[in-house]
Amino acid sequence: MTHRPEAPWTSIFDQCCVDTTFAHTLVDYASSFSWTKGQHTFKFGGEQRLFYNSFFQPNYPNGFFSFDQDVTGQMPFSTGPDGTQGNSFAGLLLGYGDSGGINVTPSVADKSKETGFYAQDDWRVTSKLTLNLGVRYEWSSPYTERYNNTQFSDFTGSSGVAIPGVSQNLIGTTIFASNKQRSAPTDWNNVAPRLGFAYLVNDKFVIRGGAGIYYGMNVATNFQYPGPAYTSSPQAFFTKDGYAHRFATLENPFPGGIQQPQGQKYGSLAEWGLSDGNNIDTGVARNAEVYQWNIGIQQTFPGKIVLGINYSANRSTHLPWGGYSSTSNRNFIPSSVRRMHNSDDLAGLVDNPFQSLFSGPTATFNESESRYGDPQLPLINLLRPYPQFDGAFEGLPKLAADSWYNALQVVFQKREGRYLNLEGNYTWSKNMDDSSAGFNAFVGTLNNGNPQELDNLKAEWSVSANDATNRVVLAAELQLPVGRGELIGSKMNRATDALIGGWQLTTLASFQTGQPLPVTVSNARLADGNQRANVTCLNNGQSLTAGISIHRAAEYQQPYLNTNCFADPGDQQAGNAPRYFSNLRSDGIHNFDFSVERVYKFGRGGQVEIHGDCLNCLNTERFGVPDFGYGSPTFGIISGTAGGALPRNMQLGARYQF
Length: 658
Prior knowledge:
Structural class: mainly beta
Number of strands: 30
Strand content: 35-45%
Helix content: under 10%
Distance between the termini: 52 Å
Largest sheet: 16 strands, antiparallel
Number of helices: 7
């Protein structure tokens, strides 16, 4: 059970995927040919990778249930200006939740392929100029399931069903996989030219550059669940009318029983009356296009010192819009309609025009878990473009996200020194995008960057959640000049030399700017979107932070964010905050590692390596992100350290090699 007194919810049985079993097999074969003629070296080749994914994940086999403040609040959907009305734990004690469900999910056996061919010419034009010319052609073959337990969402498919007062011909149907159509359509347009050059101005100065087009792996080449018609995810409806009346209890969360998967019995009308969280649709599974270019100079100085300065850029298009559900769901209420209602309106019950299809002697559907057999439905269902579905109607995410990355990179090296070797690099960069998560929304705070309004995606463009303006990495390796034949103790005896001679010190220091933060709304009230806060001090000179350092805020449990700079945008209204703030950042990286080691060599290639390591040797804390949900009692408070951040760690080790 998860319960946080300061949070507006309590959940039980919410740990997913504890019984997962899988077997992944990757088969890779390739062939290449190289031919040198004159000043040219030609290379040709091809490869293919086959991925077999046998996967079984019975999510939430005991069911999952959530209890929020609204259940016991004086007024549902209004927990007060300080968020204190209602108590989620009280809802648990009453067995009266706000949502829940259970999953019935069989295993899958998926297969996908990646295929590519290339040709390249390394052309030494002169003794100073070398060109690298190449082209690659590749394609991704979207996954198929061994038993065709897959389906495709057709967002424009005609159902032929007329619902009086709703539509004369509802659109939105399902196509089941068959031997004629087993996968999403393939993107065949992935031609990738590349060009690179190196120009040796003199023996100490070189100019390098290059540009190329690359393609991301297709999002439809890996999935681990069957189509939703082959699964069942009954929802627990504790209430059907916005908490006015109670329907289910924790003791009996599924009064009509747990519905088993429907399979293909409803044909193209599969999942009507239910939420259709499908993964693929009839659209082309387009590969992301990545355009990269760079140019740089490198100068060698006396003392074997090398300095390089480079500019690097990356422009990507047709990226998959990331996050959970997000743009995969096409059944969202239009923003222009949503703004005209509040949460009570949208949850309010109206006459159900679909009832005759789900109940009575002439019913088409027999789905006990569906509330479409009830006399009334929430208004929001009828305001969505696919009202036949009770919630989402999903497919592939929209493959239309963009990103821009520009960076200045400085590289320093002190090579092959007798006692000291140095290496370091500094990167000054800017990363902008409109979707930062990909399919890995569970990492950090990435899922908080889900779109606010699915029909206003241009408003999602902001600094990337992955942006790190400054990054410095410094490494040094010092061979101590102590021991026989060294500057210190050159004539010491062998026993003393074995004890104090031949030691090497290594250090690694890393410094990086923190990542941008979002500001959402704790008690969000935005149907089908990820509500963000309003920013009220954009033009009055006030700081978005409370004026103290992030370390001081964490140490003294004071808010890091300035509450006065934010406001609740209102029920069913979008906030004006950007997806991420470039001037609001989490704690950065300030890490120093230190190692000492000695190698003892024996005859015939044997050796023993002894080392001692001190990780995060200065014991610098890296705190986690503050609570960025406006309206939360702990808004702006930092409650822990960053994921993966560890205190000082010291270790000793030895390795014998023979």
